[in-house]
Design a protein that fits this description.
Blueprint: E1 12-16, H1 27-40, E2 44-47, H2 63-75, E3 81-84, H3 100-105, E4 110-113, H4 118-128, E5 132-134, H5 148-158, E6 163-165, E7 169-171, E8 187-190, E9 194-197, E10 200-201, E11 208-218, H6 219-225, H7 233-239, E12 245-250, H8 256-268, E13 275-281, H9 294-302, E14 308-313, E15 324-326, E16 329-335, E17 338-344
Parallel strand pairs: 1-2, 1-3, 3-4, 4-5, 11-12, 12-13, 13-14
Antiparallel strand pairs: 5-15, 6-17, 7-8, 9-10, 9-14, 11-16, 16-17
């Protein structure tokens, strides 16, 4: 596994928009404030051509232009790390224009983003053996003040953060809107971790530990990649099978039945071979339907693997989210309503 260098003081942060750009509010103002904050911290910023674009369908620009931006930013010697401008809907259409073989030959760079950015964070790891950061996109860094999760996310890029843990409260209803683009997370809900081993619910005080190579992202995107020419997951699993794997998964648009179908599909494709455990984020659309709740939606498959399955982890579309280094070796400890993930760059 290739781990990028940390950004040094005064280094250059590159921004690109392979999914949505920051052309509308509240994202535009939040992004502008993030740029100012990074510059005030002493960093240089370099913007790709699509950061403020809105010409695409579900992404910032035409797929070939987004692909060209990715290739350019990864090859540029003027940027040390890269942060995505946002998530979106159709980043998958950009992938045919991304030169993954060239990225694999270049010196690795940290790339940060989540949601639709799974199309890149996951493939950087599985196709080019390059670790990536599944964490908030650029506009989040414009909030005043930063939530501790953002300190952790940027701390991975600076080399200061390798262990993250539950943040205590999460946001059910955001206060961010075009008139209030810089408001922080509205954390009102208490985190309630639910721990299973196999399909057996554990006592909240139970001490559960497991480890393996971290892999995953947004399920909406992962199952869309499954079976395509970009899906080299089983090859990746075979390369690192001695480590075993911890899958971190969260869902955006998928309802509980879609989540259950996605889990079935990944299992049948062999994606859960050598699994050592699961970290499951709070689903954005996880309402119970026809008696199926978000826990059973996952446990129908994960519960049969006889490994720890941890639910309602700070991960995904209901912030805050723990930044996870996709491709790193994770040591997970769960006890007393807290999840701690220690990441080793091995």
């Amino acid at each position: 596994m290739r781990y990028p260098k940390s950004i040094a003081e005064g280094g250059s942060i590159g921004f690109l928009a392979p999914s949505f750009g920051c052309n509308i509010e509240p994202y535009k103002s939040a992004f502008n404030n993030a740029l100012e904050k990074f510059q005030n911290m002493g960093y240089q910023v370099k913007l790709g051509p699509n950061c403020y674009a809105g010409e695409g369908v579900g992404i910032s620009n035409k797929p070939e232009k987004c692909g060209a931006e990715i290739n350019e930013m990864f090859q540029s010697t003027e940027t040390d790390v890269l942060i995505s401008c946002g998530g979106g809907e159709l980043m998958c259409e950009v992938l045919p224009y991304v030169d993954f073989s060239k990225i694999a030959e270049n010196e690795p760079k940290w790339y940060m983003g989540y949601s639709d950015n799974t199309n890149l964070t996951y493939l950087l790891t599985t196709l080019t053996d390059t670790a990536s950061i599944y964490a908030p996109c650029a506009p989040a860094f414009g909030m005043e003040p930063w939530h501790p999760s953002l300190d952790d996310a940027f701390g991975i890029m600076t080399g200061e953060t390798k262990t993250v843990k539950t943040y205590g409260k999460w946001e059910k209803e955001s206060l961010k809107d075009p008139e209030n683009p810089l408001v922080p997370y509205n954390v009102t809900e208490d985190v309630q971790i639910r721990t299973y081993v196999g399909d057996e619910l554990q006592h909240p005080d139970a001490n559960v530990s497991f480890e393996g190579r971290l892999i995953g992202g947004c399920m909406d995107c992962l199952v869309n990649l499954l079976g395509t020419r970009f899906d080299k997951t089983t090859d990746f699993l075979d390369r690192y099978k001695e480590d075993g794997f911890v899958w971190f998964l969260e869902a955006c648009d998928l309802n509980v039945f879609s989540i259950r179908r996605a889990m079935w599909q990944m299992e049948e494709a062999g994606w859960f071979n050598h699994v050592k455990g699961f970290l499951i984020g709070r689903p954005l659309n996880g309402s119970t339907m026809f008696g199926l709740d978000p826990y059973e939606a996952v446990l129908a498959v994960a519960g049969k693997k006889n490994v720890p399955v941890i639910f309602d982890v700070d991960l995904g579309h209901l912030p805050p989210m723990m930044p996870i280094v996709c491709g790193s070796y994770g040591e997970i400890k769960v006890q007393n309503n807290d999840v701690q993930v220690s990441m080793k760059f091995v």
